[in-house]
Specification:
462 residues; mainly alpha; globular
């Protein structure tokens, strides 16, 4: 009986702290430990480099508050997959799910795993970075395909350790570096000029990628105890916390290590640690940073397959993705995402994946955030039966009114402006990666058309 009551209580949904942990775990990962090296190729102003992370953070907070209204109105799990299906058309939702399944989660999983391998290989050169990445994805797929207790417990302690260690690293960087690098972090004419340059806009795509994950709680909206109250607080507080951590980390990187040593390098955290702690301490930090990225890969492996699982429930052609193990874990979806991640690890370069995935996910979130204006104009509740069953689900008659975006319409417009500006420059400066992203979207629409035709044929046979 006790076990049954415990399980029932667990099914009552997630609270605020759990939702914040989901957001932070999905955000803090690959980008902040790797993208500074690419940003330094175009920018050398300390002020402009920190403003990248502040502008990206403000845009992410605005996006999070906008998504809070979408999530508390629609109240389905699945993030953009649920939003676009309801706001625009099932085809838009399907393509969004297609994007999430391939580069929304699988590509970031690959990027975090590659960075894990790069850091660990820096300390142990005999270990091949790429195969370390492969091993990590395989092991974590097995962990999260086992039980809820094992999966959830592993994620909680790795996320807590990550935040504590980042704070400790920043404190050490400020207190132990007695001769900081001669970068100017105060506003100047050169810094303002850098902010208005195309290089700043292109660098912002790396920052936007680093902030991706601020929408993570919307993937479990159905399981929140009170979506209207919890969702905006989790999205806003989690994103603000991460923005503070990101600005602090990049300040320490730039303060501790010469820019010439960081340009074009993935392992910027390891290089900065060399200047803070010395060679031996840097080896320890390299191992520590690699372990921190385990939490990031773990969060992606945990959250991402839920989109595939939802697609499997909505489309008979993909019903195999709906299969769960005896403990209710969507194991088939987890293994499917794992295979896609391994394909990215083994076939693509790091920077190509980063820009390619950042551009395509940027389009995804842009369309979803713009949907808040559609919902406001429509003024209609979610149709009966569209919201998932579960805690707080359903926004029909008698339900609590949805959360309203603070600062509307300015808040969503800030997010749309920053995101649109960045995507425009990517189209101009990186047409190959942008073209790959648009091609992936076109493939998604083709798969949707095929899927709908096949599902109709199956229904006629039955």
């Amino acid at each position: 009986m006790a076990r049954g009551r415990a399980r029932s209580g667990d099914e009552a949904g997630f609270g605020l702290h759990t939702a914040i942990a989901v957001v932070v775990a999905n955000m803090v990962g690959t980008g902040v430990f790797t993208s500074l090296g690419f940003q330094l190729e175009d920018l050398r102003s300390g002020f402009a480099l920190l403003m990248l992370w502040i502008v990206g953070g403000v845009a992410a907070v605005c996006g999070a508050l906008t998504y809070a209204e979408l999530g508390s109105t629609i109240r389905r799990s699945g993030g953009e997959y649920a939003f676009l299906s309801h706001i625009y058309h099932p085809a838009a939702g399907f393509v969004s799910g297609w994007i999430s399944a391939t580069i929304g989660f699988a590509a970031p999983t690959a990027l975090a795993a590659i960075t894990f391998g790069t850091y660990l290989s820096s300390v142990f050169p005999a270990l091949p970075a790429r195969w370390l990445a492969v091993g990590l994805v395989v092991v974590l797929s097995l962990v999260h395909a086992s039980t809820h207790r094992t999966s959830g417990g592993f994620q909680r302690w790795t996320t807590t350790l990550k935040v504590a260690l980042i704070i400790a690293f920043c404190a050490a960087g400020v207190s132990l570096v007695t001769e900081p690098q001669p970068l100017d972090f105060l506003p100047s004419a050169a810094g303002v000029s850098s902010i208005l340059s195309g290089g700043f806009a292109v660098s912002l795509i790396f920052v936007s990628y680093s902030y991706s994950g601020w929408n993570a709680a919307t993937y479990v909206t159905r399981e929140l105890r009170d979506p209207r109250r919890i969702l905006p607080r989790a999205l806003g507080a989690g994103t603000l916390l991460v923005m503070v951590l990101y600005v602090g980390l990049n300040y320490v990187f730039l303060r501790a290590a010469p820019a010439e040593e960081l340009v074009g390098r993935l392992e910027v955290g390891y290089i900065a640690a060399t200047h803070i702690f010395g060679p031996r301490g840097a080896d320890m930090m390299g191992i520590t940073l690699a372990l921190l990225l385990v939490s990031t890969v773990s969060a992606m492996v945990l959250a991402g397959p839920r989109v595939l699982h939802a697609i499997g429930g909505d489309y008979p052609t993909f019903r195999f993705l709906r299969r769960s193990n005896a403990r209710g874990i969507p194991a088939v979806a987890i293994y499917t995402q794992g295979v896609i991640s391994l394909a990215f690890i083994l076939t693509e370069s790091f920077e190509t994946i980063l820009v390619f995935s950042g551009f395509t996910m940027g389009l995804n979130t842009l369309c979803a955030a713009a949907g808040v204006f559609v919902l406001r104009r429509r003024g209609a509740p979610v149709p009966a039966g569209e919201a998932d069953a579960g805690p707080g689900a359903g926004a029909g008659p008698g339900a609590d009114p949805p959360y309203r975006t603070w600062g509307y319409p300015i808040t969503p417009l800030v997010f749309l402006t920053v995101t649109g500006w960045t995507l425009t420059y990517i189209l101009i400066e990186r047409p190959l990666e942008a073209g790959l992203g648009l091609g992936l979207i076109a493939v998604g629409f083709a798969i949707y058309a095929f899927t709908r035709a096949r599902d109709r044929a199956l229904s006629r046979i039955r």
